[in-house]
């Protein structure tokens, strides 16, 4: 296919930027035909975090089996109904990105298809467009919209007035929200990744009065989460009767009840700041829709807080189901469809871009 509007609308997408090896087939930027994800969570649990070389080797090990599974589930044999191959070009880990890019380039070349580079962060936003194979049709996100992206490496708010147009409203000045969850989870002795572990631990909190600070950043749309780590350390040290500096980095043993209360207080602070700023951004910009993406969007307390606040303001919220909030290739297939239709192409020299930013305009 060379014409920008011709084709079946079927995009084969590859994602390997971090610790999930994923291949998907998506139709018209929306309907998932196949979506296969091999997670390395168990592999990285032993080290309490991702070791880049270990992640890249695991991508090499799993890329072909994941591709074969996706092709078989989508019933693709002769590739004639695939319009383009989309792939995450960044941001992410260099070695991990390289595996996916090499796979996608080879597939595009062998089958004579266009190669379409996609920004991983844009993928997290476009997850809001996806429909599962047997899900009922529902209206697409309407512009103008506000997108909150909260992942392990990024936290930012953008306004979109149309497809692929992003205006940056604010971003974290230090840690990403997911990073804060992971670090505090580790401090509390919870398993990796910290996000889901903190969410589950918080459900058991008997007392909900442990106050964690909120960084409002002078009422801008910027975020800061590094102070929460310090606050969590102070609380844990106080509880154990030691100096904060004397604490082990991980594996402190606190009673379950304290872990639950600290998890609750920390999560409440993160959710409060994320939801308040998102709702205010939506109100001020006259948004019709709020979309939330990235691993932290799998957090049910955050989802509920934004949904309820938006409903009260007559704004629709679209948060993908948890499995589409965390890394997957279907979201790359959704964004890749719009990039393909916009005529964007990657050549045989397409390189991994570990620090790629979303192409955004500064606030007007
Ligand atoms: O988007 P993602 O899968 O990978 C990146 O692109 O970073 O996000 C992973 C992050 C991790 O920090 C993880 O702790 C967090 O998402 N996360 C959660 C939840 N599920 C995953 N954070 C809070 N609550 C959750 N339920
Ligand atoms: Zn991600």
- The 3D shape can be described as globular
| Count of extended strands | 11
Number of helices: 11
Number of domains: 2
How much is the average pLDDT?
93
**How do the strands of the widest beta sheet line up side by side?**
10-9-6-7-8-11
Walkthrough of the structure:
By secondary structure, the chain is an alpha/beta fold. The protein has two domains: 10-132 and 324-341, Nucleotidyltransferase, domain 5; 145-319, Nucleotidyltransferase, domain 5 (2-Layer Sandwich). The protein contains eleven helices and eleven strands. It has helices spanning 41-45, 52-74, 94-111, 120-126, 177-187, 194-202, 226-240, 256-285, 300-312, 322-325, 330-341; strands at 10-15, 20-27, 31-39, 84-90, 115-119, 145-150, 155-160, 166-171, 289-293, 316-318, 360-361. Strands 10-9-6-7-8-11 form a six-stranded mixed beta sheet, with helices on both faces. Strands 3-2-1-4-5 form a five-stranded mixed beta sheet, sandwiched between helices. The longest helix is centred in the C-terminal third of the chain and has 30 residues, at 256-285. The chain is globular and about 65 Å long. The model is unreliable at 1-5 (pLDDT under 50). Residues 18, 151-153, 178, 181-182, 193-196, 199, 294-296, 298-299, 326-327 line the site of 5'-O-[(R)-(carboxyoxy)(hydroxy)phosphoryl]adenosine.
